[in-house]
Amino acid sequence: MGSTNSKPTLSPDSSKKAKNMRTGRRDSKQVNELCGLSAEIREPASRSPGVCSSNENIEGVFYKFVILHAENDVDEAIRIQNLLQNKFCIKPGIIFAEMPCGKHILENLGDAVNGSAWTIILLTEKFLNGPWCEFQSYTCLANALNKQHKYNSVIPVRPLNNPLPREKIPFALQAINALEEDSPGFAKQVERIFQESTYRQQREIWRRERMKEKLEHL
């Protein structure tokens, strides 16, 4: 799930260790609470004009990446989408706001994660405005753990504009090295992560799964 490195050795200070353990329990509790929200989550109150797509435009394409973002971060998500597509030629890509309007938001989330090779989590200050963004994160991480070909597919990104402070990043995402847009090594990290061979492998698996689903419904 993303580019991972071993965590630094914890300080021997027992109080710090106890704090980390409490944090872990807190986030474990949040996972259970977020999972319980699934029946209550509704479509966002509004979408940006011209962003929402039709089923026909989405379902036949396996994307290189999808950007999950806060409801008020559509413009920033589009900026990152354009950056990856135009500067690094990583295309096609999609942002979550472009998912079809006619489906339930949870169905769209599943389609977005399973219909793309990489899931980018846009970490801005708005990420923590509500439970939905964290729910997205835990869903992606669970999907990556349950499907071997999805390992290393979750990519947190701290953009130039209004990045989420590192100390506020949810516990479950702290084990993943986030892409830092202001880092001198950003371009090399992007090129190393988004490998064409990985995309083709995942696209083939996606096609086989879709074919199997169609046969089962005959």
Automatic annotation (TrEMBL):
Q: Does the keyword Phosphoprotein apply?
A: yes
* MF GO annotations: signaling adaptor activity
Gene3D superfamilies attached to this UniProt entry? Toll/interleukin-1 receptor homology (TIR) domain
Claim: Nucleotide-binding is one of the keywords in the record: no
Taxonomic lineage is:
Eukaryota, Metazoa, Chordata, Craniata, Vertebrata
Q: Where is this region: Disordered?
A: 1-30
Q: Which InterPro entries match?
A: TCAM1/2, TIR_dom, Toll_tir_struct_dom_sf
Subunit arrangement? Homodimer. Interacts with TLR4, TICAM1, IRF3 and IRF7 in response to LPS. Interacts with IL1R1, IL1RAP, IRAK2, IRAK3 and TRAF6. Interacts with protein kinase-inactive mutants of IRAK1 and IRAK4. Isoform 1 interacts with isoform 2; the interaction occurs in late endosomes and disrupts the interaction between isoform 1 and TICAM1. Interacts with MYD88; the interaction decreases after IL-18 stimulation in a time-dependent manner. Interacts with IL18R1 and IL18RAP. Interacts with TLR2. Interacts with RAB11FIP2.
Regions of biased composition (Polar residues) lie at: 1-13
In terms of superkingdom, the source organism counts as Eukaryota
The family database entries (Pfam families) matched by this protein are listed as: TIR_2 (PF13676)
Q: Cellular component GO terms, alphabetically? A: early endosome; endoplasmic reticulum; Golgi apparatus; late endosome; phagocytic cup
What role does this protein play? Functions as a sorting adapter in different signaling pathways to facilitate downstream signaling leading to type I interferon induction. In TLR4 signaling, physically bridges TLR4 and TICAM1 and functionally transmits signal to TICAM1 in early endosomes after endocytosis of TLR4. In TLR2 signaling, physically bridges TLR2 and MYD88 and is required for the TLR2-dependent movement of MYD88 to endosomes following ligand engagement. Involved in IL-18 signaling and is proposed to function as a sorting adapter for MYD88 in IL-18 signaling during adaptive immune response.
Name of the protein described by the UniProt record: TIR domain-containing adapter molecule 2
Which one GO biological process term can you cite for this protein? TRIF-dependent toll-like receptor signaling pathway
Q: Where is the TIR domain?
A: 61-213
Q: Principal localization? A: membrane
- Keywords from the UniProt entry: Cell membrane, Cell projection, Cytoplasm, Endoplasmic reticulum, Endosome, Golgi apparatus, Immunity, Inflammatory response, Innate immunity, Lipoprotein, Membrane, Myristate, Phosphoprotein
User: What is the annotated localization of this protein?
Assistant: Cell membrane; Cell projection, Phagocytic cup; Cytoplasm; Early endosome
Recorded hits in PROSITE patterns, A to Z, give: TIR
